[in-house]
Amino acid sequence: MKLIAQVKLQPTPDQAEALRQTMLAYNDAANYISDQAWMRKSFRAYDLHHATYYAVRERFGLSAQLTIRVIKDVADAYKLDTKRKRTFRRMGSMTYDSRVLRWMLDKSEVSIWTMTGRKKMPFVCGERQRQMLETLQGEADLVYRNGEWYLHQPCNILEDDGFDPDEWLGVDLGIVNIATTSDGATFTGADVLGVRKRRRRQRKRLQAKTTSSARRVLRRLSGREARFARDVNHQISKRIVEEAKRTARGIALEDLSGIRGRVRLRRSQRDNLHSWSFYQLRQFIEYKAQLHGVPVVSVDPRYTSQTCSRCGHVAKANRPSQDSFLCVVCGHAANADHNAAINIGRRAAVRPPNVSGTEVDFYSRRPGTSSPDSSGSI
What's this model's pTM, rounded to 2 decimal places? Predict the structure, then answer.
């Protein structure tokens, strides 16, 4: 599996200026090549190389290898579509390969090409990133962010052997509780919701001032909320995958695709819905599970919050409140998210087969039941 190791460079002021000049020249060259590609309506790397290689080297002073890299980057940008002209930010990331970037892991240094020659500069990273760098592979990206320089290096991480599980750990995703497992483990979203609420109030207050100092504070606070939520999702996904690995179970997740377009909420609840990072949490669970050889499947979320995990009765009345479940037939009472997680795990064990390429809908509406809970449980 390919993962990205992020390391922070520690250049001297002169080295930082050399990196800046190199990045400016690289992206100016990218915009020049994009102009030529758009004018000629020729977007293949081979054609762009023959049309712009010598001009780029003469105009911008890039090395032969960086010239090849920037041509390839422009061609890759036009692979998305050729209907609009591509432009590149002057301080946007640039690509380095092994010919212009050399790692010296034993010294915690890199040797990197700049407009003023090769520079050796130290880097710092965590122990996990250092282990990943032992298997580095492919091109690295040089990134300038908030006055600091970073290298993003892909690494080829070995995966554990997979297994065929007999049981599944169901995971119910939500806003109030970010995740609840069929074992009853609950990961509350109170801290994340509190941070988001405070940041919204703070942004609103600062934006109303329209002063330079207020804008300066807004820039300084930019990204803090997203980083906090990302860290929480990393912690939750790690614990879920570790539990599934320890008990030799697969992980069953509800497929919440399109939920933001289906759910109707009060105005006061919409901010929480649209800042809900359930897809990020799912991605973290999937890649961590792949590393550990744990299978992950998606199941239909319909009725999971209305179905009794004991008798199977489906009714909207089974869910009297957000956090409680009470079956109107058998009287089974439970936490609503835990009950839904059990149903999700069971659906993974008995998934509907494909018939003539069309999945049989075993969860369609049955006579006498309430309308489908197509949004899953929030």
Answer: 0.77
Helix 224-246 to helix 190-209 angle (10° resolution) is 170
Q: Domain spanning 160-188+225-378 has what CATH number?
A: 3.30.420
Question: What three-state secondary structure class fits 30?
Answer: helix
Residues 352-377: tens digit of each pLDDT:
544 334 343 444 444 344 433 434 44
Query: Do 96 and 140 touch, CB atoms closer than 8 A?
Result: yes
Sheet with 250-254: list strands edge to edge. Answer: 186-188, 177-181, 168-173, 250-254, 296-299
Q: For 250, phi and psi rounded to 5 degrees?
A: -85, 175
**Amino acid identity, position 9:** L
C-alpha triplet 309, 314, 317: angle, nearest 5°: 105
Ranges of each domain in the chain: 1-158, 160-188+225-378
- Neighbouring C-beta atoms of residue 266, cutoff 10 Å: 6
**Helix, strand, coil shares of the chain as percentages rounded to 5?**
45, 20, 35
